[in-house]
Amino acid sequence: MWKNWVVVLVAFVEAMSLPADANVFSMGGGLTSLEFVTVGDPGNVADTRVMDDGTTGYGTVNYTYKIGKFEVTAGQYTAFLNAVAKTDTYALYDTSLDQAYSFSCCNIERTGALGSYTYSVASEWANRPVNCVSWGDAARFANWLHNGQPSGPQNLSTTEDGAYYLDGATSNAALLAVTRKGNWKWAITSEDEWYKAAYYDPGKPGGAGYWDYPTRSNTAPGQDMTDTSGNNANYYTAPYAYPIDSGKYTTLAGEFQNSDSPYGTFDQGGNVYEWNEASLYNSVRGLRGGSWNAGGDYLHAADRFSIGYLPSDKRIAVGFRVSQVPEPASIAVLALGGLAILRRRR
Predict the structure, then answer these.
(1) H or E stretch including 11?
(2) CB neighbourhood size of 130 (10 A)
(3) How far is CA 207 from CA 186, 201, 202, in A?
(4) How far apart are CA 84 and CA 92, in angstroms?
């Protein structure tokens, strides 16, 4: 009898299937929930440093907003898939997510047949960031949050409208044309929202300003898993010295517990690159933050990863986090943030 219980327990530990009605804001069962921190200080000055691509003037946001304390996790994305991907019309799931096909993705598995697919994630991966997801996948996740985490087919009431009007957009050209709507509630972070949360510190010694790294430091982070120094991150050092368990490339959400940004976010440096809303050269979407397979210099504020990636790309070192507008009054000033773009120059 006890052997049967052991088998059940092992199966639960190895793979955790999440129901369609799972609430990503209250995951339970030892899973990381979607938490937010508030980024205030509206109207902060832009950073004057020059980026690696010659642009400048990032970080001004003229409204108070909330941003994910952690990157969206594999567990949260699995809940999303179980809610809207029984048929998976727009390929929110890719076999690369399953480690049977890709050694460094987040180990989400799909079972069943078209129309009744179900998804599960190995417990040791559930609280690590989702990766191998496209910009379009991230936009549909944001729409799902905007619509209140509904269950059902991928349509205008679930994934295809909300913060972004997608309505079946999957090509690179169509995804590049997508912009955030004025009535947004949750969204992929804009580049300025992301940059401010990572590097701006209203209480910085000597006066408000920007740090070089998103760990409240101008010194490059270390890779100490015990995090005693408070300035550590998950990134690449030769010869492949990963600060993680063998066979795992990402770290758990908040693993570097003393290395948060001034506003309290984690892993904006390293772990996985994060999609943002920037459209670069009319061909690619923006990324920030460095990753487990990129060197420490990619964590620096001046690194814009200006080559970007196609919005349909699903890469092993790319995930995302989301932002939230806390109240309707804040939306009215969103357009002011666009003025900063006009001031940027190469």
Answers:
(1) helix 2-14
(2) 30
(3) 31, 9, 7
(4) 9
pLDDT tens for 177-229 read 999 999 999 999 999 999 999 999 999 999 999 999 999 999 999 998 888 88
Distance CA 50, CA 58 (A): 9
Dihedral, CA of residue 186, residue 188, residue 190 and residue 193, to nearest 10: 60
* Cα distance between residue 112 and residue 265, in whole Å: 37
- Main-chain phi, psi angles of 310, to 5 degrees: -60, 140
Q: pTM of the prediction?
A: 0.89
- Identify residue 203 by its one-letter amino acid code: G
Cα separations (Å) of 18 from 6, 28, 321? 21, 11, 20
Collapsing DSSP to helix, strand or coil, 337 comes out as helix
Q: Which fold has domain 13-25+35-346?
A: paralog of FGE (formylglycine-generating enzyme) (3.90.1580)
Say if CB 110 and CB 117 are below 8 A apart.
Answer: yes
